[in-house]
Amino acid sequence: MIGLTITEACYLEDISRSTWYRYEQKHPDIATKRRRWEKALSIRARVVIANKIFDKEKPSAYYAQWFLEREMDRETRNAQNELARANARKINAEIERIKAETKRLNSNDEGITKIVFSDDLKPDDEQKGNENDGADTKPK
């Protein structure tokens, strides 16, 4: 059925989707035709709009404007989707970085991070430092 999804066509014909798919398995050429039928209405509508826009006798500014607005909406949605995907990749990279840092902190690795933290945990009178290195923590 032209322009309908499988679910819609099966509902109108009062058959189950599984029945349709079993039929398609027995007749593989029907699957190709079905995909064409699903898109036929949309394609035909675009052809009609294109004919209105390119009509030699009376081109339609209304259809041209309508078409451009839809194109802009589509481009905006695509840009928003790409931005959302980029943000998701950034968040996932940050999550992986935090996991790696957490794993390193929880391991017995005596890296520079643990040295700094272990010195910060000492009481003020036990911390070492002098005025030259900017680490003098003793009150004056």
From TrEMBL:
<protein>
    <submittedName>
        <fullName>Uncharacterized protein</fullName>
    </submittedName>
</protein>
<feature type="region of interest" description="Disordered">
    <location>
        <begin position="116"/>
        <end position="140"/>
    </location>
</feature>
<feature type="coiled-coil region">
    <location>
        <begin position="69"/>
        <end position="108"/>
    </location>
</feature>
<keyword id="KW-0175">Coiled coil</keyword>
<feature type="compositionally biased region" description="Basic and acidic residues">
    <location>
        <begin position="117"/>
        <end position="140"/>
    </location>
</feature>
